[in-house]
Amino acid sequence: MNTLITEVKAHTEPRLHGEAITSLPHDLYIPPDALEVYLETFEGPLDLLLYLIRKHNLDILDIPMAELTRQYMGYVEKMQAIKLELAADYLLMSAMLIEIKSRMLLPKPAEVESEDDPRAELVRRLMEYEAIKLAAQKLDELPQVGLDLMVANAYFEQIIQVQSAQVSMEDLLAAWQNVLKRASHFAHHKVGKAELSVREHMSQILRKLKEHNMMEFSALFDVENEGIPKLVVCFLAILELAREGLVKITQQEAFTPIYLHINQST
Amino acid sequence: MESNNTTQIKTILEAALLTSPSPLSLDDLLRLFSERVERTTLRMLLDEIKQDWQARKPNSMELVQVASGWRFQALAELAPFLSRLNPERPQRYSRAAMETLAIIAYRQPVTRGDIEELRGVAVNPNTIRQLQERDWIDVVGQRDVPGRPSLYATTKTFLDDLNLKSLADLPVMEVFVEQPFSESDAFIETGSETVAQVDFIDNSDASAN
Amino acid sequence: MESNNTTQIKTILEAALLTSPSPLSLDDLLRLFSERVERTTLRMLLDEIKQDWQARKPNSMELVQVASGWRFQALAELAPFLSRLNPERPQRYSRAAMETLAIIAYRQPVTRGDIEELRGVAVNPNTIRQLQERDWIDVVGQRDVPGRPSLYATTKTFLDDLNLKSLADLPVMEVFVEQPFSESDAFIETGSETVAQVDFIDNSDASAN
What is the pLDDT of residues C33-77, one digit of tens each? Predict the structure, then answer.
C-alpha cells in the first residue's frame, strides 16, 4: 500500500525529472567487451531480476516495480543488441513486469489492496528461485565421489561361476510358435506328441547306428520290454529315416537279415 | 571357535568392502555368507570394523554408510593427493545443471515443465540427459496430465556420490518467510530510500514507454 | 620430522593403492607427490607397506606387484566368498538360439539347412556351438546329400535339464489346426500314441511335399 502511494506520488510529482536523466543506471554500465560474457552469466530472467534486486539492495517483499522494470529492460535491450539467444524468455518477463507495473498504477478499492498486490506472484517466484539457486550452490559445495572422495576399489580375483541360461518349456514353446508363425508353408501342419515320439526315435536310431555303423533291423526293436505302441513308433521312425535318405536298409536276399546303416553313399 | 568365526566374517567383510567399487548393502553382504549370518551380527561387525579403522594409526581409509550401503573411502584430507592420479575426474556441472539438479533433489518428483517454471527458462535437454547418464536422476513416472510428462527424481547413486544417507541429509534449503506486503517492517525501514528510487525511476519510466 | 613425513607418504600410498581400480606404476605413484619423492624411497616404502599388511592379523588384503604396477588385492582364500557378490547373471538365450533349439527339439534330426529354411535366416555357427557346449544337442549323423551336412538332435541332458522324461513330454503345439476343436480335444484325452502316429504321418508327409 505504501508503495502504491509512493508510486502515485512519484507519478504526480515529476519534480525530479532533470535529475533522473543525469543519474541514470550507474551500474548498468559495463565495459562493452565484457558485456556479452557478463550477460551470459545470468541463468534467465529471474536470475537477472534477483541480481538487480540484490545489487540495489531492494526489498524483495516490496519491489519498486518501476525501477526494477526499467533496469531490467535496459539489460534486455543490450542482450537483443548483441543477439543473445535467450531473448524470448527475457521478453516474456519484460511483458510481465510491465503488466505488473501498470496494474500497480491503477487505482484500487481500498479494502482489497493488501491481498491483491500485483507483485505477489513475481515475489513468490523470485523467492522460490533464489532458494533453489542457493540450494544449488550448497549442493555444488558438497564433496563428490571422484572429485573430493575416493572410494575403495581394490582388486580381487573373481571366480566366475558361469550360470547357464535358464530355459523353460514355455520359452521353448514360444520359440517354436514363432518359427511356425513365420514359416508359412507350415500352414495346416499339425505337430503333436506322436510326431515327437517318432522324431525322438529317429534320433535314437541314428545315435545307435553312429555307434555301431550297421545294425540288424530286428536289433532296433526291444520286443520284450516295449509295448506295441513303442514298437510301432520305432518302425515308423525307421521308415521316416529311410524316406529322408538318412539310413539305408539292405537285405542280401529274401529272408536273410535286414541291415540298417547310415547312408554314406555320396 | 566362535571368536575365530567372527574374525573370519570380519575379514571377509573388510575384503569385500575394500574391493567393491560401489557401496554394499546389508543384503549384498549377507550374500557373502550365503545368508547364514544374522543381519544384526553383520551390523555389529560393521560397526566394529569402522571403529578398528578409526583406531588405526596411521590410517588412510574410513568405513562410511551412504544411501545404498557401506563403503570404504579415503580420508578426506588425502583426496587432494589422490586426485592428482586421476586425470579423468567427473566434470563439475554448470550452474544451469546444478539448479536443475537442485530442483529435482528438493522438489521431486518434478516434470521438465516444473523446472522451467521455477527457473524461468527452457531446460536444455542435454542437461537432463547429462544427469541421467551420470545416474543421478531418473524417470519415476508420468504426471497424469495431457502429454503425460515424465516425472524426475534423484537416485541412490546421487546420494552415494554426495556422501549422503538420505534426502534428509541434503543441505537445508533456506526458506524465506513470506510476510504480507503492507506489514513489512523492512519496507518501513528502507522506506525513504524506496521513495527516492521510485521518484527517480518513474521519470525514466516515462521515457522508456 | 622425517619419520612423520614418511608416515604420511605411506598413508597416501596406501590410500591411492586401495582406491585405484587398476595397478599403479612407480610413475603414477610419483605423481601423487608431484615427483618430489625419490623413486628408491617409494620402492622402499611400498615394501614396508607390503610387510605391514603381511604382519596384520587378521588380514584381508595383500600388496602385490604385477606387470603394470602395484595393487592391493584380496587374499586368494577370500575370493570364493567375494565372488558370491557378483554371480554371473544367468544368461538368456537369444531369440535366434531359442528358435534353433526349438526346431531341433521338435523337428529332429535336422541339418543347419533345415533350420535356416524354417527360420528364413542363416544360422549363426555360434548358436549351434553354444547349444552343443551345453550338451543340449549333438550330431547324430549326416544327411546323405552333397556336403553331407550334420544332423542335430537333442540329448538326454536337454531332457534332464528341462525336467522331461521324453520328447513326447514337450508342450504340444498345434498351429492352424484344420480339425474342429472337439477332435483335438479327443486327441488329448486319448493320449494314445498310436492314434496320434497316424495323424503325424499324414501331416509330416504333407509338410515334406
Answer: 988 899 999 999 999 999 999 999 899 999 998 888 899 999 999
pLDDT tens digit sequence for B168-203 = 999 988 765 443 333 333 333 333 333 333 333 333
Peptide bond into C58 cis (omega under 30): yes
Q: Which long-range contacts (CB under 8 A, 24 or more apart) does A188-191 make?
A: A188/C176, A188/C178, A188/C206, A189/C175, A189/C176, A189/C203, A189/C206, A189/C207, A190/C174, A190/C175, A190/C176, A190/C177, A190/C178, A190/C199, A190/C203, A191/C106, A191/C172, A191/C173, A191/C174, A191/C175, A191/C203
- Over residues A211-221, mean pLDDT: 83
Inter-residue contact C128 to C96 (CB < 8 Å): no
Q: What residues have CB less than 8 Å from B76, skipping those under 6 apart?
A: A143, A148, A149
Distance, CA of C204 to CA of C197 (rounded, Å): 10
pLDDT at B13 over 50: yes
Strands (E), chain C: 61-66, 69-74, 137-142, 150-154
Q: What is the pLDDT of residues A177-207, one digit of tens each?
A: 777 777 655 455 555 556 667 888 888 888 8
From chain C, the residues in CB contact with B28 under 8 A are 85
> What tens digit of pLDDT does each residue of A233-247 get?
888 888 888 888 888
Interface contact flag, A45 B197, Cβ < 8 Å? no
| Distance (Å) from the alpha carbon of A123 to chain B's nearest alpha carbon | 9
For every residue of B37-81, DSSP letters joined together read: S-HHHHHHHHHHHHHHHHH-SS--EEEEEETTEEEEEE-GGGHHH
Please say whether the beta carbons of B197 and A23 come within 8 A.
Answer: no
CB A2 within 8 A of CB B180: no
Residue B177 to residues B3, B76, B116, C104, C200, Cα–Cα distance (Å): 58, 36, 23, 74, 84
**Residue C131: how many other CB atoms lie within 10 Å:** 21
Choice between B149 and C203, residue whose per-residue pLDDT is larger:
B149
Q: Locate the chain B residue with the closest alpha carbon to A131.
A: B174
- Category of C163 on φ-ψ map: left (φ > 0), alpha (ψ -120 to 50) or beta: left
Q: What is the ipTM of this complex?
A: 0.63
Cα C129-C132-C138 angle, rounded to 5 deg: 125
Q: Which of A93-97, B18-22, C177-181 is least confident?
A: C177-181
Q: Distance (Å, rounded) from C-alpha B127 to C-alpha B138?
A: 13
Residues whose CB falls within 8 Å of the CB of residue A21, separated by 6 or more in sequence, listed in order: B203, B204, B207
Q: Element (H or E) spanning A258, and its range?
A: strand A258-262
Closest residue, chain A, to B83 (C-alpha): A147
Q: How far is CA A6 from the centre of its chain?
A: 53
The cell numbers describing C42, all together, are 617409494
Between residues B86 and B155, which one has the greater pLDDT?
B155
Strand partners, A96: none
CA angle A54, A58, A61 (to 5 degrees): 110
Q: How far, in Å, CA of B110 to CA of B119, rounded?
A: 13
CA distance A105 to C96: 75
How does DSSP classify residue B123?
A: P
Which residue on chain A is closest to B201 by alpha carbon? A67
Q: What's the helix, strand, coil split of chain C in %, to 5?
A: 55, 10, 35
* C123 close to C112: Cβ distance less than 8 angstroms: yes
Nearest partner of B108 among B67, B80, B137, B65, judged by Cα: B137
Nearest CA distance, A197 vs chain B (angstrom): 43
Asked whether C191 and A194 are in contact (CB, 8 A), the reply is no
Q: What is the pLDDT of residue B176?
A: 54
Tell me what pLDDT residue A190 has.
52
Q: How do strand A247-251 and strand A258-262 relate by DSSP bridges? A: antiparallel
Distance from CA of C32 to the nearest CA of B (A): 5
Residues of chain A found within 8 Å of residue B91, distances taken between Cβ atoms: none
